[in-house]
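Worked example

This section walks through a single chain of length 489. The input is the sequence exactly as stored; nothing has been trimmed or padded.
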Amino acid sequence: MNIYKVFSDLVTMVKIGVPQNTFETVHLLDIKRSFPSLDCLTREQFDEVRKRTSQLLDFHSKSKLAYQAVDYLGNFISERGFKEIDCFDDSPTKDKKFFYKDPWQKSSMVVVNQGAKPLTEGFRLIISHVDAPCLRVKPRPFHVELPGTVHFYDHLGVRLSTIPHGGVVVPYWMGQQVKVMGYTIDKNRQRREITFPGIVGVNSAHSEAFESILRREFSPENSLEIIVGHSGISGFLETIGINSMDDFVNSRFWAVPTNEMSILNEDSLNLLVGYGHDNRTTAFSAVDAITKVTNQKYSSIVWIVDNEEIFDPAPAGSSGNFLETIFEKMLKSQEKKENRKISVDEKNAFYNKSRLITGDVTFSPYGYDAAETDHRSAAKIGLGTSIEGGDIQGYNPLFIRDLRTLAESTSNKIGVCHQITGQFYSQDEMNLWYSRRPQSSFPGKGVSDSWVAIPCACLHSLVEVICPGDEYATSELYKRFFKSPVSAF
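Given that input, the structure is written out below as C-alpha cells.
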C-alpha cells in the first residue's frame, strides 16, 4: 500500500468536505436560547421559583374564571393574616391588613396592607385583572332544528350559542373540547355552581366548502356553538338542575379550554405554558407581593378587576367606583382616628402623592408575530420583568427612571432582572387600538403610572407562554415598589 497515496486521498476528502451530519449548518444546532431571569438566580432563589411555580399551577387549575380566581386569592391572603371585610360594613376597622370582594359578582377585590403614614400621604397601587378570553354562553342560547324540517337529523342535539369574550381568535376554538362553568341564582338568592362538558363544533374536513370557509373571516355567530351531548332541551336543563329556559337567564356560564397549564422542561423551568396567563398570573404576582411587605411607610393596595378583556365595564371593571368606595371608607377611618375632618383639597392632593402600576402581562412576539408588530420595542421572554416606557398613555419618564432605580438596587445583594420596553404596536395600529380602549381614570386624577408586567407569548390563545423567572422578577419588583420609602418617587 502506498502510504503517500492514502494520505493524499484523505486530504482530498477533507477538502471536498465529506458531510458528517445531515445538515451543512450542523453547528447551529448548538446555539442555546438563554433565559437571563433564570440564569441570574442563586440556587436558593431558583428553588424558590420552583416552589412558586407549583403554587401557580395549583392557582390556574382552580381559577378558570374571574370569580374563582378571587375566591382562591381570598383564601391565599386570609391564610397570611389578611381579614375579609363586608363591603357594606361602614364601621372603622383596626386591622392593618384586609380585603374587600365586590358585592355584585365576587369577581373583583381590593387588598390593602396599610403603611405607617395615613392614606392622605399617598398610596402604592397595582391594578391587575383576572378575566381571560373565553366563550360567554348567551342568556337564551339554545339552538335546535324543529322536527319535520329537512335538517332535523343533521344536528347532534342541543347546541349553545356563545359570545366571544375578550379577544377570542375564532379558529383557535373550533373543534376544542371545553368545560362550561358558572353558576345559577335560585329563588333564595343563593349561588349554585354548575359545570358540564362540551365541544365547539367544527366543519367536516371532507366538505368541499371547508377551504372557502377557512379563506374568509370566520363568523363567531356560526362558528362558536357548543355541542353538549343532549338530544333535547328539557333533558339538558334537568341534568344541570335548572327548571326552565327562563330560569337559565338567572345563570352565568363561560366555556373555557380543558387543557391544564404545564412546565415544558421540569429541570430548567424555562417555559410555563397554558391558558390564562393573561392575566391571572400577574394578579397572583401582585397579591403574593403585598402579603410579603412589612413595615412600609405608604399603604400598599392591589386592585383585582374583572372584565378588562371587554374594556372594563362597571361595576366589577376598573371603570367602576369600587376602589373609590374603599378609599372613602379608609378616609373615614382616618378622620375618626385623627378626630378631624379631611378637607376636599387633601382628598384631591393624595392622588398626586401616589403611584400606580398596571400589572398586566405584556405582549412578547413569537414567530409570525414579529413580522406584524414592532418587535424591537416589545418585551422578550426570559429577560426579566418588563418596565414599559412610552407616551401613548402619558407615562411619566421620572417614574420610569425611579422604577429602574428600584430594579437596579443591590440592597438585597442582587438586583431585579428587568428590561425596558415600549408599545409593540405599529404607528398605524397603535392609534387605532388606543382610540377604542377606555383607560383607567386614575392617571386623570394625577396618579403617575407605568406598565410593569410579565412578558407573555401567544397572547389570547389556548397556550400562552411565560418564563417563571420573569414572573419571579415581576413579583420582586412589586415588593420593592410597595416598600419604597419615598413619596411621589
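What to look for: The longest helix spans residues 43-61.
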